[in-house]
Amino acid sequence: MAFSERIARLKSSLIREILAAAQRPEVMSFAGGLPAEPMLPKVDWADMPASMGQYGMSEGEPALREAIAAEARALGVPCDASQVLIVSGSQQTLDLASKLFIDPGTEVLLEAPTYLAALQAFQLFGADCISVPQEADGPELAALRQRLENHKPAFAYLIPTFQNPSATRYSEAKREAVAALLDEFGVTLIEDEPYRELVFDEGQATPIVSRLKQASWIYTGTVSKTLLPGLRVGYLIATKDLYPHLLRLKQSADLHTNRIGQWQALQWLGSEQYRGHLAELRSFYRIRRDAMQAALLEHFGDLAEWEIPQGGLFFWLTLKQPLDTRTLLDAALAQNVAFMPGEPFFIDPDANPGHLRLNFSHVAPERLSEGLRRLAAVIRDAQNL
Amino acid sequence: MAFSERIARLKSSLIREILAAAQRPEVMSFAGGLPAEPMLPKVDWADMPASMGQYGMSEGEPALREAIAAEARALGVPCDASQVLIVSGSQQTLDLASKLFIDPGTEVLLEAPTYLAALQAFQLFGADCISVPQEADGPELAALRQRLENHKPAFAYLIPTFQNPSATRYSEAKREAVAALLDEFGVTLIEDEPYRELVFDEGQATPIVSRLKQASWIYTGTVSKTLLPGLRVGYLIATKDLYPHLLRLKQSADLHTNRIGQWQALQWLGSEQYRGHLAELRSFYRIRRDAMQAALLEHFGDLAEWEIPQGGLFFWLTLKQPLDTRTLLDAALAQNVAFMPGEPFFIDPDANPGHLRLNFSHVAPERLSEGLRRLAAVIRDAQNL
After folding, report:
1. How far is it, in rounded angstroms, from Cα B233 to Cα A50?
2. Which CATH superfamily is domain A5-40+274-384 in?
3. pLDDT in tens for each of the 385 residues of chain B?
């Protein structure tokens, strides 16, 4: 069987395998990034018009595109509805952007660490990935300048607000500096914002694309983290030089995004009901975040360092005594605990041992301490071998 | 702006432009392939479990995969649910298969004519397309053998049952012969079956994949033509050597297909209600097909030749005096009539003038004769110039 050469780059997803193992009900899973089941809002379908069953436009539903453009403008993103493309979850933005930009060997600039599924999507298309180290307030600017001077990336892919996995929220100063650098070097920005609305501690986070003066950009988001991921409704907003190509690539990929989910998303976006739901969601997750912080202090205080996430769904731990955390998985699962090793979030996993990504939205608070106690014991065992 | 080299192959879709022009309410459109609005079934959402809002499996909903495997087995396709992948409309099968097989220059074998969006998807990935002429009962077998002797296609893409655009249904003898040839040369088959259930004149049509003994295969279908296209729910069934790669490509493309639409599809597949709906659909479309045939005889009897379609949504006309039908579009639209030129359905459009694809599901019967009269007049005018 002769497959395309990209299939040799198609990696097995460690996340898939961990999540499969974490399905057993007795497993306490810190591995996934699923919204908490009790916080999935009850939705109503009774008023959906029958016309939503017919084929739709590749661009997406006009009213939904208007609503998304209005929300983006309120954040400072200069755009109108004609720049909005509804996608089948924001994962599809990564696929479309890969098709638009990446040939084998095309350079792409990423944060280190970065979102695993983005890294895999870009590598599938043959990207030569270059990374910039992440600090607590955003990328190391000197390193970013150096990368831009020495490379010609087709785009920079950044997740500036509560990144998965590091939970970093870029400071306003770093946002400004990153925009200026991308403008200076004329590098397109893909700004991925799935977690923007999951904020626990308020703070400024103006989108970087709103500060660009020259560079082209794609801004992408989703309703998956705040409404219902099962709808598979996301969006991208793109500058006018990119949009027509992205639209044709979307049409070739799946004609258009399902209209049922688009209609449901439209019922919520911008509504009073949605604002109320988001407020509930934030306070629910804030409580879980705080409980996780307390349990981490109890069990991991001597083992690891971390920042308290101000939004998103994850703690990102750095072990004081690094080891390849992938080697801990079997022992943890034997103790009925699942977690996500940090190595796969880096371009060069072997050179970046000693991080763990721990989700705080899934494990019930009463099992939290026990789960983290077991995980800490697994780490201590491994470090004493 | 440096795009990937595939963007140079990203064609503007003539269909998109024609459909946009055909939106004007005064236009009688024979151009599209939309299900008739009155035949979209009324669906109920009240019983959908809240869990359908959560993230799901990349493979698709287990119960839906079981139902699809059972239907396929009833057609003679040897498979089980583990070989079923739910996709975001069967267009996505073309995207996933392109990623699995096509590098720039990879040879791919197609019917002439073939489905336009498949041709575009394969060409986007750089396929070198080779075609086999279609006869009334399927491909020319001598030509097929000759192509297989002289080329090494990664796969053959065939639509053996009521093809879009030609409406051809392969005979059982040709299905058998095609399977034997693909086995002999070890060429993978992609069998695309969106129209199988839209049958007006009964006849045997056992899937070709069920006859293969050696070759790998992908069998793909959708609920778009018989239930609701707006759900964007399709499926593929693949041999076990292909499935794991397709699954990972699916995950990278959009994580999973929307669960709302999957749940709705499951309510219908295999049900008594669905059987009743399909029977109504067939008799509704049969009446429209017969009305179209009568109107064509009246206005096109001296202009063109055609076979009466035994299923599907289209008549495929061959002008007795060929001309490039793309040149007729503006004149037709000026008369408020839209149709689909035949040239884009061929690898080499300029070498294949003189076909029209006419949809019979959309224009109301009372306007049919007037629409075809105007279209015939446009053709006559052009031929007399």
Report:
1. 17
2. Aspartate Aminotransferase, domain 1 (3.90.1150.10)
3. 789 999 998 876 677 778 777 778 889 999 988 888 889 999 999 999 999 999 999 999 999 999 999 999 999 999 999 999 999 999 999 999 999 999 999 999 999 999 999 999 999 999 999 999 999 999 999 999 999 999 999 999 999 999 999 999 999 999 999 999 999 999 999 999 999 999 999 899 999 999 999 999 999 999 999 999 999 999 999 999 999 999 999 999 999 999 999 999 999 999 999 999 999 999 999 999 999 999 999 999 999 999 999 999 999 999 999 999 999 999 999 999 999 999 999 999 999 999 999 999 888 888 999 999 999 999 999 998 7
Task: Give the length of chain B.
Answer: 385
Q: What is the ipTM of this complex?
A: 0.96
Which residue shows structure tokens 């008369």?
A: B335
Please spell the DSSP secondary structure of A98-154, one letter per residue: HHHH--TT-EEEEEES--HHHHHHHHHTT-EEEEEEEETTEE-HHHHHHHHHH---S
| Nearest beta carbon to residue A254 from set B7, B52, B88 | B88
CA-nearest residue of chain B to A96?
A: B253
Chain B residues 67-126 within an 8 A CB cutoff of chain A: 87-89, 91-92, 94-95, 99-103, 106, 117, 120-121, 124-125
With beta carbons less than 8 A apart as the criterion, state whether A94 and A118 touch. Answer: yes
From A5's Cα to the closest Cα of chain B, the distance in A is 7
CATH number (3.40.640.10, 2.40.50.140, 3.10.450.50, 3.90.1740.10) of B54-272 reads: 3.40.640.10
Enumerate the residues of chain A whose CB falls inside 8 A of the CB of residue B255: 89, 91, 117, 232
Which residue of B55, B61, B123, B259 to mutate against A (max A Cβ within 10 Å)? B55
Segments making up each domain of chain A, as ranges: 5-40+274-384, 54-270
- CATH code for residues A54-270: 3.40.640.10
CA distance B377 to B382: 9
Chain B CB contacts of A51 under 8 Å are: 37
Tokens representing B353? 């003038």
